[in-house]
Amino acid sequence: MPSNAKEDFVVEHDGEKYNIGKFLRFHPGGRNTLAALEGKDIAQKLRQYEHSDSALYLMKEYKLRRDARGADDLEKLVDWNKPMLKQVGKLGARYSEWVQSPVDRKLRLFESDFVEKMTVTPWYLIPIIWIPLDVLLLYKGYSDTKQYFEDTYLPPWVLFCFASGFLLWTLLEYSIHRWLFHLHPPDTSPRLITFHFLMHGLHHKVPFDESRLLIPPAPAAIVVVILYCLFYSILPLWMMHYFVAGILAGYVVYDLTHFYLHYGSPRPNTFFYHMKRYHNHHHFTEPDNGYGISCDIWDRVFRTQIYLKKLKFSLRW
Asked: Containing domain of residue 123, as a range?
């Protein structure tokens, strides 16, 4: 879970000092790869491991001389003391470069406090809101199924429909992430730029803001209703409830997995350990690959897989 504990860890680079203590738990290479570098110059290590431009840009956030980010600082294009949603559309041709240059800050979207609160989601709201609805869908499916099948036929059909819905979610997750969230908006359309930022761009801009990691209940509810109506029109009632329950369960797993990949510390040689490394590479190295969050199966199918290097040691976050 997110922690507010502060930790000093000062390093040097090009004559400047940086306190990266706050970043240690988010470092894609784990905090143990940095353990021996405290108080030392890290220029050689940065060259040795070929850090991306976005990683080097993020490093500026931790410079101890806060007035020395430089004339090329993209953050001068916006005012971080004001709501961001009204500003991003004006970035035009600079938007793509700006949004792919991460910072470690809190982001405010709206002027209204009420509307702003509707856009932030603590992780525990996801199971509180959606698991009871999932149980209700399963119960409705069970009630409808009793009209069509004997009890002996119930378990296989339930498992098939639920599993099919769950699998479909993984494809929806991949498709939405790749072809909607990572669709590059035209420079001449402030509205599409703003829409892109609201949907996903903000997550790449402030990847460590825990309140922006999860989909708020209101927009998620709209998607659930659309999917419910869609499958209501094409599937038998009993099958539809199990199918949608599987999709909803997949969504819950996705959202909580996404949060855990950012803030969790998975053990080496586990599925989540692999996916945390995988998602970190998506953020800081290959934003145009690695669209899977809860799994990488569709990245393999559509050839957008990120190939992780085999390490001589295990990472610790």
From this structure: 115-301
How far apart are the C-alpha atoms of 88 and 307, rounded to whole Å? 33
Give the position of tokens 């979207």: 109
What are the φ/ψ torsions at residue 267 (nearest 5 degrees)?
Answer: -75, 150
Examine residue 91 and state whether it is found in any structural domain, yes or no. Answer: no
Residues contributing to the annotated binding site: 27, 51, 177, 182, 200, 203-204, 258, 262, 279, 282-283
* Calpha distance 117→85 (Å, rounded): 14
Both tokens assigned to 316: 């610790």
Residues 6 or more apart in contact with residue 19 via CB below 8 angstroms: 8, 9, 10, 62, 64
What pTM, to 2 d.p., does this model score? 0.89
**Looking at residue 4, what is its pLDDT?**
47
CATH number, domain with residue 32:
3.10.120.10
Residues 236, 176 share a domain: yes
Q: Rounded distance, CA 28 to CA 102, Å?
A: 14
Binding residues for heme: 27, 51
Q: Which residue has the tokens 């940095």?
A: 34
Are 37 and 127 members of one domain? no
Q: Among residues 37, 56, 72, which one ends one of the domains? A: 72
Structure confidence by residue, pLDDT tens digits, 52-66: 888 889 999 999 875
Is residue 104 one of the residues assigned to a domain? no
Task: Please give the pLDDT value at position 46.
Answer: 87
What confidence category does residue 232 fall into, taking pLDDT thresholds of 50, 70 and 90? very high
CB 83 within 8 A of CB 108: yes
Average pLDDT over every residue of 76-92: 96
Q: Please indicate, yes or no, if residue 110 is contained in any of the structural domains.
A: no
**Residue 144: predicted pLDDT:** 82
* Structural domain count of the chain: 2
Same domain flag for 192 and 284: yes
Is the same domain home to 141 and 57? no
Residue 244 pLDDT more than 90? yes
- Which residues contribute to the annotated binding site for Zn(2+)? 177, 182, 200, 203-204, 258, 262, 279, 282-283
